[in-house]
Design a protein that fits this description.
The chain is of the alpha+beta class. The protein is built from 3 helices and 27 strands. The longest helix has about 35 residues.
Length: about 425
């Protein structure tokens, strides 16, 4: 007994081709069932990519599976492709699955695709292909290439020919800003324009403004423009000499003016506010020098700088202090020694309160020395008068105190002598 020959698929005779097409057309109008034995999924694909459609049978009974396009034209009948579109390719065919790929997907391919299973009754289920179109172009249009500090400028970002309509987000550096968007539809495509109004300052110079697209078909699509902002000069005056010190009479003073702006300042000058500049002041570019300060130099000195945008200035207030004070050498006494510093200098120049405290100490020391000297003098005079104080009486003047005149005083004095004779005692 010969072995069983493997069955071969006979080629369709030319006369049967119209009959086959008629059969396929009749199959295309089979009423839709509930699809209880068919499984498929919707497909979302980016324009130009590959979409894969899968028709699967949960419980295979060797029934015929076919796939139809949105126009209900048969793409595949089992593993046969009647539709002459080479973009459709068979990926897998079995009794339980028909899987087909569609390359180079375009908008015209979007729609419902039908899976049919020839059972009794026939079953049908559909899958939807959604085609995403990323923006074809992203452009920022800025109202002014160069802005001046304090101005408001308008920026427009346009995302053209996308599907669905895109969302535009604005950023200035790392900070997100809010714009106003408008959407226009052309056929199946959408063009979105977002407008941003921005008030610029000098801190915005060189900062990027970013237009970023939020769309399911694309990631990290953005474009940016760098702001160019012009602003008035920033002026700063610094004291070179004396370094952090007091400006004293007779000493020099040196100031420096620094200015920064966009464009860079082209003119810089020194002047004295509310008064004329002293004749002995030397100005050299951005530097101001006074070799020998005096009290007439007191006042406010201003440095002005200007560019194409405007003019700015910075002030320095000069107050000339007295020169350091010099006192006599220290004084010493027998009981107390007081030492007076010969030169008074401030420990931290530039602090007026320190100078006042040193002057008070000097005055207090001088007063103490004067008081001490006066006390010593009073003691010496007191001892001198104490030694020479007293009244001396002679025997001849005894009795004269009670006399009415000089003659009586003499007589009383003589009488006193006689009485003294009478009082003599004799010893044998």
């Amino acid at each position: 007994m010969a072995g069983r020959a493997q069955p071969r698929r006979p080629a369709a005779p030319p006369g049967l081709l119209p009959l086959l097409l008629l059969l396929l057309s009749a199959a295309a109008i089979i009423p839709r069932g509930d699809g209880q034995n068919l499984v498929t999924e919707d497909v979302t694909v980016v324009e130009g990519d590959v979409a894969t459609i899968s028709c699967r049978v949960k419980n295979s009974d060797d029934s015929v599976i076919q796939l139809l396009n949105p126009n209900r034209q048969t793409i595949y009948f089992r593993d046969f492709r009647p539709l002459k579109d080479s973009r459709f390719q068979l990926v897998n065919f079995s009794n339980s699955e028909l899987r087909v790929s569609l390359t180079n997907v375009s908008i015209s391919d979007e729609g419902r695709y039908f899976c049919q299973l020839y059972t009794d009754p026939p079953q049908e289920i559909y899958t939807t292909i959604t085609v995403l179109v990323p923006p074809r172009n992203l452009v920022i249009d800025i109202q002014k290439e160069t802005a001046i500090e304090g101005e408001e400028i308008e920026l427009n970002c346009t995302a053209m020919a996308s599907r669905p309509a895109t969302t535009i987000r604005w950023f200035k550096g790392n900070k997100e800003l809010t714009g106003k968007s408008e959407v226009e539809q052309w056929s199946d495509m959408y063009t979105v324009t977002s407008q941003l109004v921005l008030k610029v300052g000098r801190e915005d110079d060189g900062v990027p403004v970013i237009c970023l697209v939020d769309h399911p078909a694309v990631k990290d699509l953005q474009t940016q423009r760098y702001l160019e902002v012009m602003y008035k000069p920033q002026v700063r005056v610094s004291q070179n000499y004396p370094v952090q010190g007091l400006t004293r009479e007779g000493e020099p003073l040196e100031l420096t003016c620094a200015a920064f702006g966009k464009p860079q300042p082209t003119e810089m000058r020194w002047l004295r506010v509310d008064d004329e500049m002293p004749q002995h002041v030397v100005v050299s570019g951005s530097n101001l020098l006074i070799n020998n300060l005096n009290k007439t130099d007191n006042g406010t000195y201003r440095c002005e700088a200007s560019n194409a945008v405007g003019k700015s200035h910075a002030d320095y207030m000069l107050f000339v202090y007295d020169p350091p004070t010099t006192l006599p050498p220290p004084t010493t006494t027998t009981t107390t020694t007081t030492t007076i510093p010969t030169t008074i200098t401030d420990s931290r120049a530039g602090e007026e309160g320190a100078i006042h405290s040193v002057d008070h100490a000097v005055v207090g020391g001088v007063v103490a020395v004067v008081v001490f000297a006066m006390l010593c003098l009073l003691i010496i005079l007191g001892r001198y008068f104490a030694r020479h104080k007293g009244t001396y009486f002679t025997h001849e003047a005894k009795g004269a105190d009670d006399a009415a005149d000089a003659d009586t005083a003499i007589i009383n004095a003589e009488g006193g002598q006689n009485n003294s004779e009478e009082k003599k005692e004799y010893f044998i």
